[in-house]
Amino acid sequence: MQQSREGLLIIISGPSGVGKGTVCKALMERNPNMRFSVSCTTRPPRPGEVDGLHYFFKTRDEFLQMVQEGAFLEHMQVFGNHYYGTPRAYVEQQRASGFDILLDIDVHGAMHVKSACPDAVTIFLAPPSMSSLKTRLVGRGTETVEAIEKRFEESFHELRYMKDYDYVVSNDVLDIAIGQVEHIIAAERLRVCRNQAFIESFQVKGEDGE
After folding, report:
1. What confidence tens digit (pLDDT) does each residue in 180-190 have?
2. For residues 79 and 159, what is the distance between their CA atoms, to the nearest angstrom?
């Protein structure tokens, strides 16, 4: 069956420490037709970062002008400082070219994107338990005890949004979780609403008279 040429918009969210980055990296490596969404930001480039590859770097005025023009699927200001946003045009262009777009964003950004793009596929990556999540946060060894506690508390808030997602995947065993996400993507490509051209082809009498 010939699939719809337009790519999927896939949103993955979950609490800090649940393994979103690892899952997204594996999906990108295993699915050559997938692209990671490139965000706009007002922060200056870090050494080695390339405009249009890692971020679209904008001045504050340019970013705010884009906000006024409705150019973002979602945007936010981090700690009252720099702005970040998902550019609508980039996502639409990539999807129109047949690429699946992967977004790793928080629950608030995900709900904004879902509102702007109702056909987006939303997946919440959850820990097998809160105790295992805390163990992972501590095991990273990159933050203070206070920072870990803050992230852990934020996780309870984020987990309340699970019911608003299309799918929930427990990241207990990494390979299984990655496989489940890939199964979701495969099933989404088979949805009737994404295969209208194929369905309509049966409404036209073929050359063989069938």
Report:
1. 999 999 999 99
2. 22
pLDDT in tens, 97-123: 999 999 999 999 999 999 999 999 999
Per-residue pLDDT for 43 more than 70?
A: yes
Residue 194, in any domain of the structure: yes
Please give the single-letter amino acid code of residue 83: Y
d(CA 82, CA 74): 14
CATH of the domain at 107: 3.40.50.300
Give the position of tokens 């990108």: 28
Reported pTM: 0.87
87 occurs within a structural domain: no
Vertex 12 angle, CA 7 and 18, to 5°: 150
Show Cβ contacts of residue 3 under 8 Å, excluding neighbours closer than 6 positions. Answer: 189, 194, 195, 198
Residue 23, domain extent: 9-37+100-203
Give a yes or no: residue 135 inside a domain: yes
Number of domains composing the chain: 1
